[in-house]
Amino acid sequence: MQLLQVGPTFPKTPFLISKSSPNGGVVGILSSKKLSLLYDTNHSLASSHRHERCKWASLNQSISSSISTKAASVDAGAPAISPVTAEKDVLAALSEIIDPDFGTDIVSCGFVKDMNIDESMGEVSFRLELTTPACPVKDMFEEKANEVVAKLPWVKNVNVTMSAQPAKPVFAEQVPMGLRTISNIVAVSSCKGGVGKSTVAVNLAFTLAGMGARVGIFDADVYGPSLPTMVSPENRLLEMNPEKRTIIPVDYLGVKLVSFGFAGEGRAIMRGPMVSGVINQLLTTAEWGELDYLVIDMPPGTGDIHLTLCQVVPLSAAVIVTTPQKLSFIDVAKGVRMFSKLKVPCIAVVENMCHFDADGKRHYPFGRGSGSQVVEQFGIPHLFDLPIRPTLSASGDSGIPEVVADPQGEVSKTFQELGVCVVQQCAKIRQQVSTAVTYDKSIKAIRVKVPDSDDEFLLHPATVRRNDRSAQSVDEWTGEQKLKYNDVPEDIEPEDIRPMGNYAVSIDWPDGFCQVS
Ligand SMILES: Nc1ncnc2c1ncn2[C@@H]1O[C@H](COP(=O)(O)OP(=O)(O)OP(=O)(O)O)[C@@H](O)[C@H]1O
């Protein structure tokens, strides 16, 4: 076992923790004289979910082996099993369902909520709270959850309801107020103009809405806003809420839209050297409400507007749009590098105007391969091809996006695949960030995942609390420790752990202290 020292040490009580391993590990505190073990994950309650599941599985077996007795007692109206066992039983069954994106079972993913069991009546109800209402496998989850729980010998009736997490960014504290009810912000970007970026942004947004998500589009192209041409809402003007000093987005088919093109008279005033500031203001003062996805149609290029926008807006991911010409590769590479510097993952490349079919043949007027070159060279996992289609151009001009006008068509199918990719990748990104540091109540330890690795550390909560280096715990001038060892109860547990930025977490403690580590 490898012992690792983490973080600044508390006077007299530097702490050592072990790397957790599949075989378990030891969490301990090294006082000046001795190492006192707090718990050993091999032998105590400190078992992982996997161990817990084994226990449930064996419980399951013993339940199954006495089906007849229990069925008889259920019929007689007597409780078949204890409430605790019944809940473990249901959770064990549900943990057979694996989320294909996270590769983890839905219990460990934290999807199971509001469990209600009447074991004497054999009735089970619970809610599956998914990361997004647009989850492409939600029907499978619902069906499977019903199936696996109904199979339990004592269960007579299962009631599963489906819901999605409330819309909220992962780093809520760092986000401008106006964007704090948006879960994912996806930039659609290209380095050159006219490659079809707005076409992709608009059709992607309406695809996500069609999948059940709450969606908004922000057209950040001040000099050539395309959104007003591509959609045809009845009311085409952004309204102001003078009391709240906010902007009310335009609505088209339930998707919220903000574009300079809808600014009416204000457009002339808003154009000018303060473009970046105006973009940020428009974006952050819009009343977006709760959104699962805000799609940003970025202006073409990689200039100052992009940098300021990316600094203000916590982008979840970027989709790059390009055309097949060899020259496009150089442009796209610039865009990928910009997002990489800003730590925004590029999740997909859309190669637009790839080909058209005529005379029974497929033609590639701009050549082939620049999209796949981007995917290979930069390790972007997904590539989508869009053909040249007169209908795509016509629907853009008519104000009805192609995916709305022809939802069963070939182009809509490609957008459906792109939509699924965006939903899955955003969910993965959120999960990775939000599970980097978690509290494991079963072993009373804070788990810290090492990025890009399966390794993780276990930290003792009281030790983490005692090692706070903020002004509340340490005198800033003298360096003297204000927080005394005994001020922190040995069994203190964090109430909430939230990620802050890429490297920090904030921890809420029961004494009201919020620690940033
Ligand atoms: N696959 C396609 N087939 C046919 N027409 C297309 C296709 N993609 C885009 N177009 C058309 O090409 C024109 C430019 O597309 P779009 O406005 O989406 O590009 P853009 O990259 O956003 O341009 P800009 O940077 O100027 O905003 C539009 O008229 C659009 O309808």
Automatic annotation (TrEMBL):
Example GO BP: iron-sulfur cluster assembly
Domain Gamma-butyrobetaine hydroxylase-like N-terminal: 451-512
SUPFAM superfamilies on file: Fe-S cluster assembly (FSCA) domain-like, P-loop containing nucleoside triphosphate hydrolases
Subcellular location: Plastid, Chloroplast stroma
Statement: the UniProt record of this protein carries the keyword Iron-sulfur: yes
Cofactor(s), by name: [4Fe-4S] cluster
Cellular component terms (Gene Ontology): chloroplast stroma
Any Pfam family: GBBH-like_N
Metal-binding as UniProt keyword: yes
Any GO MF annotation of the entry: metal ion binding
Family of this protein: Belongs to the Mrp/NBP35 ATP-binding proteins family.
Entries under HAMAP family matching the protein: Mrp_NBP35
UniProt protein name: Fe-S cluster assembly factor HCF101, chloroplastic
